[in-house]
Write a structure and sequence with these properties.
Structural class: alpha/beta
Strand content: 15-25%
Strand order of the largest sheet: 15-16-18-19-20-21-22-23
Largest sheet: 8 strands, mixed, barrel
Shape: globular
Radius of gyration: 38 Å
Helix content: 40-55%
């Protein structure tokens, strides 16, 4: 009994130790996040033209007009600027005033930090300081330079922020206060170590006296004592029985795991032995010569396989039936008393067996296991044979590309079992609709290909074959109008069909399938009959989907710098208030192609989405937008917090789990702040929200970005999205803006939106404001922000600077 109690005590102690280490790791990660926030703030102020001008003696009002009026210090933050000799020139600590003097400990720490950074010669260092009330502050010291980093000094800006802020929850406060007690300066070299060892913080972090900071190992003694106390209470309260049963259950579970591992090990050994034996059997080896000079008993030619020799020997030991042993050609015995035909019959039996095996293997390799139809490989082989055959007959080929509509929703709603049943049902009904000579295959996923039998008529025109293919497609759609997966599911099956009539002399198998796939994509997008015929007009169109897709791939492979001939170009359209003040700009992409000319996003974005390259295209556009916005800020000679940037995000980008982290890194790489970024999403981008989408949006919000719901009113669930998404900004679609002058329904809806958004502290923007009449009417309704051609079209950086740069970010409004 004592041994059982000892085992349980050891388990609880180890559990307490692991819990302490885990809690410390989490707290250190949160501490690192606080350091990164402080670093971003310090660099925003340190890499600012106004800070640089103050150090140069050209901006003496900087402390009173910029530092003293900033909301940054309302929660107790501190900042100081030092000249190249580390002499303090400006200071702001919390809400410092005559009645509330600065925290002397923080001031002393900032002075020491400025000297430490200058002595080490580093561009920036992390620092931990203690305030007069023993609260810890985390911060960063950085050099002071211009916003474009073209001119810099050896002056220093030090920024500190409280580690534990009032708005933090109790759990977060507890973790940060716990790690606060574990931080301490590293003893100097040669000092006698006392207590627990101290591990240096990474990256290097300095204390208020310039020493490196470290963290003591997690101390779980208090938790261990609590665990042992609980154990004693269990023992004294009758918990011995429960503890014994628990330990017996644990031992039995461990025994089962050991038995399972032993069985797995035995099975693995058998598999390995079988594998070695199979390799030996199938290995090509010549029979070793008999020392007596007599031929091998198997009497097989050199180079034959061991399995073949084994089958012959088995046939000799156990002869086939007398009837099967008769000579095939009626010849007599060759040697001895054995008939010559017996060997021939044995070889024939072996050949038949091998033929059956190979036939089964080929059938498995060329057919789909779920539906029993020909698979993609078989389909391509058959199509290539058809091309060769029809070339000889000078006939055309008719191919239907069939796709199950919204198949993903079947799997998501009813599960993969119902999804598989749906595919089998589609395959069965398509087989029943096939006519003699037609070829049906499951091309992949929910896609099927039907090659129609054209009758090998060399004179059949393309028009007649197209009519025949369209009739076949309509017959298929009609048969699926009342089709249902099973009696327990109300889901109705529907199809989209793309058709191509191709000349085998001018098209390859890949080209034919591509054309049919393009036609199917058009059929799926159509609002009427889900049938589309690919014609030569589609291919001749310079802006056809496939040509745009090929050009997009080339553009993604090249740099997005403006010097490239096929690069993306970023324009900015201002968003203004009723007084014409520019509050933000929306980044709008244009694609300049050397052959196709300027291509708007309404053409190339849907193509990128369809061909699943929107991830690459989207990142090209985001990086180009951030770079252009940084150049715009520099050209306007303003700070990043004076102007916001709106970026359009596509649905395929949001489902990427790494999107938010990459976006935050890309913003930081340009020296911008996440607080200046608005992410514009359409309703379709978040209509089918997933865990990845929700995580990305949450992480972007936590970093400081705002969410804007674009084209509000054009989707199917706008009000539901307002409840679930809770956007920071709402953009009224231009169709409602146009309708306020002549559509009573649009007018009533727009009149409700200002009251709705004001009640939930949401910003409202009207986009597509192109006339003075609509601008005046929207103001009367209570709309406060506007975007449209009435104020400015989308402009490049130089044109936008010329328009608003000399007028303090204000666009002249039309006379009322």
């Amino acid at each position: 009994m004592g041994s059982l109690v000892g085992v349980e005590a050891i388990r609880r102690i180890q559990l307490a130790q692991n819990r302490s280490v885990t809690n410390q790791t989490i707290a250190l990660e949160k501490l690192d996040a606080e350091f990164r926030d402080a670093q971003r703030t310090a660099r925003d102020w340190g890499w600012w033209d106004d800070s640089y001008a103050f150090i140069e003696g050209k901006n003496p009002t900087f402390p009173s007009q910029d530092m003293a009026t900033s909301s940054l210090f309302e929660e107790g933050a501190a900042m100081a600027l030092y000249d190249p000799q580390s002499q303090r020139k400006a200071l702001q600590v919390g809400l410092g005033s005559l009645n509330r003097p600065p925290d002397r400990w923080l001031v002393r720490c900032m002075d020491s930090t400025a000297r430490t950074r200058r002595q080490l010669g580093l561009a920036g260092i992390r620092v931990i300081c203690s305030g007069e009330t023993n609260n810890l502050y985390v911060g960063f010291a950085t050099t002071i330079s211009t916003s474009d980093n073209s001119r810099s000094t050896t002056a220093t800006l030090v920024y500190l922020n409280p580690l534990v802020e009032p708005q933090f929850g109790p759990h977060l406060k507890g973790e940060l206060q716990r790690i606060q007690t574990q931080l301490q300066p590293i003893p100097p070299a040669g000092a006698i170590p006392t207590g627990w060892g101290v591990a240096p913080l990474q990256p290097q972090t300095f204390s208020d006296d310039g020493r490196l900071m470290g963290v003591r190992p997690a101390n779980s003694q208090a938790e261990q004592r609590q665990e042992l106390t609980d154990l004693l209470l269990l023992l004294t309260g009758g918990g011995v029985i429960a503890l014994t049963l628990r330990l017996r259950w644990k031992l039995a579970e461990r025994k089962q795991r050991l038995l399972l591992r032993q069985k797995e090990r035995w099975a693995t050994q058998r598999i390995r032995r079988s594998h070695r034996a199979l390799i030996e059997i199938l290995d090509f080896k010549s029979p070793k010569p008999d020392p007596s000079g007599q031929p091998s008993p198997a009497d097989t030619p050199p180079g034959s396989t061991l399995i073949f020799r084994g089958l012959l020997e088995e046939e000799r030991r156990h002869p086939a039936s007398p009837r099967a042993s008769q000579p095939i050609d009626g010849s007599t015995t060759a040697t001895g008393s054995e008939p010559a035909g017996r060997q021939s019959v044995g070889i024939q039996t072996i050949a038949n067996r091998f033929e059956q095996i190979l036939g089964t293997a080929r059938d498995l390799a060329m057919h789909d296991a779920l539906t029993g139809l020909a698979n993609r490989r078989y389909c391509i082989e058959h199509l290539e044979r058809e091309i060769v055959r029809l070339k000889e007959k000078q006939a055309l080929l008719s191919l239907l590309f069939i796709d199950v509509d919204k198949f993903k929703s079947i799997n998501d709603t009813y599960g993969h079992r119902i999804g598989d049943q749906a595919l089998c049902k589609v395959a069965t009904e398509l087989q029943a609709l096939c006519r003699q000579g037609d070829f049906l295959a499951r091309y992949g996923g929910d896609e099927f290909i039907l090659i129609l039998n054209s009758g090998d008529t060399p004179n059949a025109s393309q028009e007649s074959l197209a009519l025949h293919a369209q009739q076949a497609a309509r017959r298929i759609l009609e048969s699926f109008e009342k089709s249902q997966v099973d009696s327990n599911s109300p889901y109705r099956l529907s199809l989209s069909i793309g058709i191509t009539i191709s000349d085998p002399h001018q098209s390859s198998s890949e080209d034919i399938v591509r054309k049919a796939d393009l036609a199917m994509y058009k059929a799926k997008a159509s609002q009427g009959e889900h049938i589309h015929l690919f014609t030569t007009d589609n291919e001749a169109n310079p802006l056809s989907d496939h040509r745009l897709f090929t050009a997009l791939q080339q553009a993604c492979a090249s740099s997005h710098q403006p010097s490239q001939p096929d690069s993306f170009r970023i324009l900015f359209q201002p968003i203004v208030n009723a007084a014409g003040q520019v509050l933000s700009v929306e980044a709008l992409a244009r694609w300049d192609h050397p052959e196709l000319g300027e291509i708007p996003p309404t053409l190339f974005i849907p193509v990128a989405e369809h061909y699943r390259i929107m991830g690459r295209v989207g990142w090209q556009l985001i990086e180009a937008s951030l770079l252009a916005f940084k150049q715009l800020i520099q050209a306007l000679k303003i700070t990043p917090n004076q102007l916001d940037l709106a970026i359009n995000i596509s649905p395929s980008q949001l489902i990427d789990a790494s999107f938010s982290g990459q976006l935050i890194d890309a913003i930081a790489a340009q020296g911008l702040s996440c607080n200046s970024i608005n992410l514009e999403l359409t309703e379709t981008a978040i209509f089918n929200s997933t865990a990845a989408v929700e995580t990305n949006l949450r992480q972007c919000r936590e970093a400081g970005m705002r969410i804007s719901l674009d084209d509000f009113g054009t989707g199917f669930s706008s009000m539901g999205l307002l409840l679930s998404l809770k956007p920071d900004e709402l953009k009224i679609d231009r169709s409602f803006v146009i309708g306020v002058l002549n559509d009573s329904y649009a007018e009533q809806i727009v009149e409700l939106l200002p009251r709705l958004t004001d009640s939930v502290s949401m910003t409202l923007i009207a986009e597509g404001v192109d006339t003075e009449e609509s601008f005046q009417r929207l103001q009367q309704m209570g709309v406060a922000r506007f975007q449209g051609y009435l104020f400015s079209e989308a402009l490049d950086i130089a044109s936008l600077v010329e328009r608003v740069g000399g007028n303090r970010l204000t666009i002249p409004l039309p006379a009322a």
